[in-house]
């Protein structure tokens, strides 16, 4: 598709859409491929095993170490239990994860994309299955071009069936993080799970199948926002997959045993392009589509070794090192730099703040909602009365009793509806629940003249002494 635009003296065509060119990555062995397999196996194992870890939280509480309990409105991370009101802990974890990603990117470029991103892991797995069933690059290209036949249909059906099984077993496994893993797996396999569970398993399965089986590199190139702004974390010392142009050019074919002296080391074999999962030619420089998987390094190292020439024509290296090497100067890896030091310091700061907040986390939390209409009432005995609705959260697993007190309004009297006769009642709240109470605060109208006064209501645990205070307002007629 193209848009043609004409003006008085200019005419040009700007293509807004380019057809997808199907990529058939070739199998390659090497040290980075090994690292990628180790990362894939390690991360997938952790993903599968994590929901099966148990954590004893006492009777009545889920014993799954990592669980997001939507109906119970809780998130459990080992010994930490997060209520909806404490969502800032999750925000803190996300900030830590983002800062760690910034740090890794500033040190080693797109190491996240190339080795640990779920899209990369699943695409790698799907490509491995594809290769197993349809063969390596040349066989797949031939199969694509071949007319329809029983053998082609069998291979395609087997491949898609295998992809769907993997998508179900891996993508669908997400559901284990939102339910008790043994229970939900049993209920899915025996056909007794709820429609919601089957719906989400279907959704995750379809997403995995489509993204890893069909969309593949299109996700990295067009859908993912991360490549668009990650270059802000790079500097000349970041380690990136780079081609040593000064050594490789002028490129040209060469025979095995030929000397590299007096010529470019790139023999223009194209293997680095054929193994690339995103179809990039790294010899053209840094590109958005390069996910930093380093398979082209394995490819070129293999070629150079066969030629008997120095390896690392394509290498994980920094731009400053490349420039130094080109001038014959020594190269060195600089990991400690102002940028990385700032990331480490910020990670440390956020971690310390989170640890402090977690270690001082209160088991009682009070929230107060003052009545808005009317703001106050004048009682028959002349006193001014304000009404409030209190919610006291008991985050412990056992029942606690709480007392209430007020500060800020001199001579004020506090009464809890249902406990009117008791001046200092103990309000019982069951474990892991919220108690709601109506409260009246009354003050003699004579000395009280202010239209609004700051009022603090305090809930105190009778047993532990722990308190939670809430600032609100006491309203009066003024004058
Ligand atoms: S693999 Fe190495 S030698 Fe072959 S084309 Fe790529 S850079 Fe050149
Ligand atoms: S150019 Fe190299 S590092 Fe970049 S995506 Fe392709 S194979 Fe991976």
Overview of the structural elements:
The chain is α+β, with helices and mostly antiparallel strands. 39% of the residues lie in helices and 20% in strands. The protein has 15 helices and 16 strands. It has helices at 31-49, 87-108, 111-116, 118-134, 137-145, 150-170, 181-189, 195-215, 217-223, 226-229, 245-248, 271-274, 295-307, 319-326, 338-359, and strands at residues 2-6, 11-15, 66-69, 74-77, 80-82, 240-243, 314-317, 364-370, 377-378, 384-394, 400-407, 413-416, 427-429, 433-443, 452-461, 467-475. Strands 8, 9, 10, 12 and 14 form a five-stranded antiparallel beta sheet that branches. A four-stranded antiparallel beta sheet has the order 13-11-15-16, with no helix packed on it. Strand 9 and strand 10 form a beta hairpin. The radius of gyration is 33 Å and the shape is elongated. Residues 1-10 have low confidence and may be disordered. Bound molecules: iron/sulfur cluster (2 copies).
Q: What is the CATH first-level class name of the domain at 364-475?
A: Mainly Beta
Query: Would you identify the CATH H-level superfamily of the domain at 364-475?
Result: Immunoglobulins
CATH topology of the domain at 364-475: Immunoglobulin-like
What percentage of residues falls in helices of 4 or more residues? 25-40%
Distance between the termini: 76 Å
Strand-pairing-aware structural class? alpha+beta
Strand content: 15-25%
Shape, per Cα inertia axes = elongated
């Amino acid at each position: 598709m193209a848009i043609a635009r004409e003006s008085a003296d200019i005419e040009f065509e700007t293509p807004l859409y380019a057809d997808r060119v199907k990529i058939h990555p070739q199998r390659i062995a090497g040290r980075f491929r090994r690292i990628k397999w180790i990362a894939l196996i390690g991360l997938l194992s952790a993903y599968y095993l994590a929901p099966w870890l148990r954590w004893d939280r006492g009777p009545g509480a889920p014993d799954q170490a990592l669980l997001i309990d939507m109906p119970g409105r809780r998130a459990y991370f080992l010994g930490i239990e997060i209520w909806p009101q404490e969502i800032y802990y999750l925000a803190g974890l996300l900030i830590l994860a983002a800062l760690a990603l910034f740090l890794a990117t500033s040190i080693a470029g797109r190491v996240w994309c190339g080795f640990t991103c779920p899209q990369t892991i699943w695409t790698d797995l799907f490509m491995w299955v594809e290769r197993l069933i349809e063969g390596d690059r040349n066989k797949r290209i031939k199969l694509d071009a071949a007319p329809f036949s029983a053998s082609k249909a069998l291979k395609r059906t087997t491949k898609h069936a295998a992809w769907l099984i993997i998508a179900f077993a891996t993508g669908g496994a997400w559901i284990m993080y939102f339910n008790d893993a043994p229970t939900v797996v049993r209920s899915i396999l025996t056909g007794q799970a709820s429609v919601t569970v089957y719906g989400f398993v279907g959704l995750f399965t379809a997403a995995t199948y489509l993204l890893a089986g069909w969309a593949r590199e299109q996700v990295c190139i067009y859908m993912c926002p991360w490549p668009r702004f990650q270059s802000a974390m790079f500097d000349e010392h970041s380690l990136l997959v780079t081609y040593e142009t000064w050594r490789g050019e002028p490129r040209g074919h060469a025979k095995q045993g030929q000397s590299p002296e007096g010529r470019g080391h790139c023999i223009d074999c194209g293997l680095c392009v054929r193994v690339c999962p995103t179809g990039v030619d790294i010899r053209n420089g840094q590109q958005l589509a390069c996910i930093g998987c380093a398979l082209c390094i394995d490819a070129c190292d293999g070629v150079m070794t066969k030629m008997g020439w120095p390896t690392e024509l394509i290498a994980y290296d920094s731009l400053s090192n490349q420039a130094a090497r080109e001038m014959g100067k020594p190269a060195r890896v600089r990991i400690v730099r102002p940028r990385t030091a700032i990331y480490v310091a910020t990670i440390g700061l956020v971690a310390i703040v989170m640890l402090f907040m977690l270690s001082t986390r209160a088991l009682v939390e009070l929230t107060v909602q003052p009545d808005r209409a009317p703001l106050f009432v004048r009682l028959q005995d002349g006193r001014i009365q304000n009404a409030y609705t209190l919610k006291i959260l008991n985050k412990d697993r056992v029942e606690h009793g709480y007392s209430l007190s007020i500060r800020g309004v001199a001579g004020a009297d506090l009464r809890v509806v249902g406990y009117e006769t008791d001046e200092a009642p103990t309000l019982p709240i069951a474990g892991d629940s919220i108690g709601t109470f109506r409260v009246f605060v009354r003050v003699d109208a004579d000395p009280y003249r202010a239209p609004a006064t700051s009022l603090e209501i305090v809930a105190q645990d009778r047993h532990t002494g722990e308190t939670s205070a809430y600032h609100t307002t006491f309203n009066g007629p003024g004058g």
